[in-house]
Write a structure and sequence with these properties.
The complex is a heterodimer of chains A (175) and B (363).
Chain A: H1 5-30, H2 37-57, H3 64-88, H4 91-125, H5 131-174
Chain B: H1 9-35, E1 47-53, E2 56-61, E3 73-76, E4 81-82, H2 95-101, E5 106-110, H3 123-142, E6 147-152, H4 155-165, E7 170-176, H5 187-191, H6 199-206, E8 208-209, H7 211-221, H8 225-236, H9 240-253, E9 256-257, E10 259-260, H10 261-273, H11 276-279, E11 283-284, E12 287-288, E13 298-303, H12 311-320, E14 326-331, H13 342-359
Parallel strand pairs in B: 3-5, 3-6, 6-7, 7-13, 13-14
Antiparallel strand pairs in B: 1-2, 2-5, 4-9, 8-10, 11-12
Helix pairs in contact in B: 3-4, 6-10
The chains are: A mainly alpha (175), B alpha/beta (363).
């Protein structure tokens, strides 16, 4: 494979996005105050312990153990869900997610563009329509459909008006 | 020291027998699900295509002989995200089937699955160009002068904007878990804040909001949801009815649909980031959207455990409209539990049906 200018560009873009990513994560980690994870986990851990103690107390060999186990799973998942929910509703999380998306788009955007242009070039050489051309054609069909529909509606309105007039004329004649 | 309550040997044997049978059934159904998965038959209620506009289609359900009310119902669901067959999941678990059994003349607007050619479609066009046509078609097909609009999820702001711009034909308005006050829309309010979320960059890059990104957004809202779903499946795997419901719901829950790019841009900017609808700053088709122009009877249904549209976010409609006949119901369950599942059939649909029946003059 040759090291063409596009490959070099992609490689440097990838390197740049990795560096930026590392920088953002380092900044985020260093941001005071760091969340105290034990604050979230401790109540959940205590709850799990209580539940297991209850299960063992009721008799570990009983088939009801399964019911207790299911409850334990549900409670654990609910507790995890709350922990994650609390973490995710913070502005720090939203900012991190936003940064991640920005980097992702910075990487994906140019790659998509360069792929699209090389694909289009290839399809043009092969005398085949590109995705863009097909999309444009479909847009034109949609717009034509819209025009036809508005014409159809006007005709329907006209027919309604004519039948109304007809009815009025008939009533007038019979009066 | 803990006291051990050992079960009586007879009870233990019986219990073990029951559990063993259940586990065998779990195993056999599990194998069937993995190796011989059946394609669930969804959306089986008879329907007729009334009108089609680009990808959007208007369907009328049921037979003329079963209709007892003169006021038709137009259900407006979300555009993008998911397919509308959730409202007609399968016989015995279908919101639409239930409404037909109550004697309503029921219409559903299926926005359709938009492609790249529709990326220019905006929220504004959906409200000012598609909805008015669909409303006219409903009135014409039913030979009625007024209708009940039932908005679900994003269908509520879409249809509320239409109702505020054209209040005359709207006899009743129902909001089921539809966001109105976007400052109270839970995690999405925080995540889509303009300080963190660059909507222009996203739409400019992809042209649309791809279905995979919609999926990621919703999965992130409740990361433990898939685990809970599969824990519950394992627990109920012996129960044929449960598995039938699971398969149908699971099909729907994994079929995400994209948003047209310009629609998503306007949706995020003007609703989530600027909260224009409740603030009264929204302008569509050159006219301000004033929710206080809605003065027909209004019902708002919120779900207590809804993390997509928290109840207070939906409830805001009650204070925004000018109606004297308005009611707010907060029912147990989550966003989907209002529209599908055993809880919906038991707790939600009868209440919505009874409210509409009182306000839909008999034919």
């Amino acid at each position: 494979m040759s090291d063409g200018p596009i490959d070099q560009e992609l490689l440097s873009m990838w390197k740049r996005s990795m560096d930026q990513g590392m920088e953002v994560w380092q900044k985020l980690i260093a941001q005071p105050p760091a969340p105290d994870i034990s604050h979230f986990i401790r109540p959940m851990w205590g709850q799990s312990m209580d539940l297991w103690a209850q299960i063992l107390k009721q008799g570990a060999t009983s088939p009801d153990t399964l019911v207790q186990y299911k409850r334990f799973l549900d409670d654990s998942l609910e507790a995890w869900s709350k922990v994650l929910g609390q973490a995710m509703e913070t502005e720090g999380f939203a900012a991190a997610m936003g940064k991640f998306m920005e980097q992702y788009l910075d990487t994906v955007g140019p790659v998509r563009k360069s792929l699209q242009s090389s694909n289009e070039e290839f399809l043009r050489t092969m005398n085949l329509p590109s995705r863009k051309q097909v999309t444009e054609l479909a847009s034109q069909v949609v717009s034509l459909e819209g025009r036809l529909e508005s014409l159809e509606e006007r005709i329907e309105d006209l027919i309604d008006s004519i039948s109304l007039l007809e009815a009025l004329v008939k009533r007038g004649a019979s009066d | 020291m803990a006291e051990w309550n050992l079960p009586v040997p007879g009870d233990l044997a019986r219990g073990l027998q029951v559990e063993t049978i259940k586990n065998l059934e779990r195993f056999s159904r599990g194998m069937e699900l993995v190796y011989r998965p059946k394609e669930p038959q969804v959306g089986q209620t008879p329907r007729e295509l009334i009108h089609k506009k680009n990808k959007s289609a208007l369907y009328r359900y049921g037979h003329a002989s079963d209709r007892r009310y003169a006021i038709p119902i137009l259900m407006v669901p979300n555009l993008g995200i998911s397919r509308p067959y959730i409202f007609d999941l399968y016989p015995g678990s279908s919101f639409i089937e239930y409404m037909l059994q109550q004697g309503f003349d029921f219409y559903l607007l299926d926005w359709g699955v938009f492609g790249d050619e529709d990326n220019g479609l905006t929220f504004e066009e959906s409200v000012t160009q598609i909805l008015p046509v669909m409303v006219r078609k409903v009135l014409k097909a039913s030979k009625a002068r007024q209708l009940t609009i039932l908005g679900y999820c994003m269908g509520t702001p879409l249809s509320a904007c239409h109702a505020a711009l054209h209040p005359e034909p709207v006899k009743n308005f129902i909001n089921m878990a539809g966001p109105i006050d976007f400052s109270r829309a839970g995690l999405f309010t925080t995540w889509l804040d303009k300080r963190f979320f660059d909507i222009d960059k996203l739409v400019d890059t992809f042209g649309s909001m791809p279905a995979d990104m919609v999926r990621v957004g919703f999965k992130f809202l409740k990361p433990t949801m898939d685990l809970s779903t599969f824990t519950n499946l394992w627990w109920n795997l012996w129960d044929e009815k449960y598995v039938e419901g699971f398969v149908a719901l699971n099909k729907w829950a994994n079929e995400y649909t994209p948003f047209p790019g310009e629609f998503f841009r306007q949706w995020v900017k003007e609703f989530y980031q600027e909260n224009k609808l409740i603030r009264g700053n929204l302008i569509l088709g050159g006219r301000p959207v004033d929710l206080s122009r809605i003065n027909c009877p209004v019902l708002v249904v919120g779900a207590k455990q809804d993390y997509i549209v928290p109840p207070e976010c939906a409830r805001a409609l009650i204070d925004a409209v000018a109606s004297s006949d308005k009611e707010y119901l907060e029912l147990p369950g989550g966003h989907i539990s209002l529209i599908a599942g055993r809880g919906a059939k038991r707790n939600v649909w009868p209440k919505v049906g009874a409210w509409m029946a009182k306000r839909s003059q008999e034919a």
